[in-house]
Amino acid sequence: MAEAPSKIESMRKWVVEHKLRAVGCLWLTGISSSIAYNWSRPNMKPSVKIIHARLHAQALTLAALVGSACVEYYDNKYGSSGPKVDKYTSQYLAHSHKD
């Protein structure tokens, strides 16, 4: 019987399948929250608030792209099943659990 995938595994699978959508959603969330935060500060010009929001969103987008590259690297190296165990290790594990 197959186990249901964990929440982290299902999120990782979604990110692998929708990389650009994940980065775009993170960018939109970042710029929206940065604009909301900057608008609550009264002693700044609106142009400075927009520039700060853009810079924050740009940094968040770069972080999201790096995270997406890490997910892609992990997926290419290990596949969807996690780290691979060679046949000798799996044979050792199978024999070590016998009573």
UniProtKB/TrEMBL annotation:
One of its GO terms (biological process) is mitochondrial respiratory chain complex IV assembly. Keywords: Membrane, Transmembrane, Transmembrane helix. It holds the Pfam family HIG_1_N. Transmembrane segments: none annotated. Residues 1-83 form the HIG1 domain. Its main location: mitochondrion. It is found in: Mitochondrion. Gene3D superfamilies: 6.10.140.1320. GO terms for cellular component: mitochondrion. PROSITE patterns: HIG1. This is HIG1 domain-containing protein. The lineage of its organism: Eukaryota, Viridiplantae, Streptophyta, Embryophyta, Tracheophyta.
